[in-house]
Amino acid sequence: MISLFEGIMLSLLALGTLGITSYLNRIMKKRGFKVNRALNLSLMGVIAILLCIVGGLSAWTLQGIAFALILLYASSQDFTNREADDVRYSVDGSYLDELDDDNLLMRFYPLLETSVAYTVLTRLGYKAEMYLDNTIFDGVYEFNTPATVNLLGTATGDIAEICLHEIERTARAYPVCEVALLRLP
Asked: Can you list the pairs that 167-175 forms with residues at least 24 positions away whose Cβ atoms lie under 8 Å?
């Protein structure tokens, strides 16, 4: 059982994580990246709470939260810089074909972001529908060719794999975590 002090400290840690996430959302938006504020906050909230449950108030928990924040925003930047041109070349013959570059990316990035969040939350054992809006996949019908579906699926898988791998590495670095993970539903 945790003491009142530990409970307050864990709550402050979770709230601090949400504050940092909100701050990073503003920075990313100023730099021209498309961010989904609510999605990032809910994803980081779930990760922070999960790490607090497993690791308690420890350096391991802080390290895990820091890694999750870094991965969330580094993955977004890396994908934006490397593969934005691939989106343009993959839309030939799809419903997205007639869109200009800005509108094309405005359709692609939110769908990619929610797809990654859905994948990560589901793989962590959460019911993603509880944390994400019911309309998150409304635009998926526009990705109606094998090339566009492949692009979206590959990007989602790559980014989710990076996030899940880092969460796993952090969890395995903390020995007590292995026992606690076996108890989670």
From this structure: 167/47, 167/64, 167/67, 167/68, 167/124, 170/51, 170/60, 170/63, 170/64, 170/67, 171/54, 171/64, 173/60, 173/63, 174/54, 174/55, 174/58, 174/60
DSSP letter, residue 91: -
In one-letter notation, the amino acid at residue 184 is L
Q: Please give the pLDDT value at position 29.
A: 75
pLDDT beyond 60 at 78: no
Secondary structure letter of residue 1 according to DSSP: -
Provide the token pair at 156.
């989602």
Return the pLDDT at 74.
Answer: 65
- Which residue in the block uniquely carries the two structure tokens 């959302």? 25
CA separation for the pair 42, 14 (Å, rounded): 11
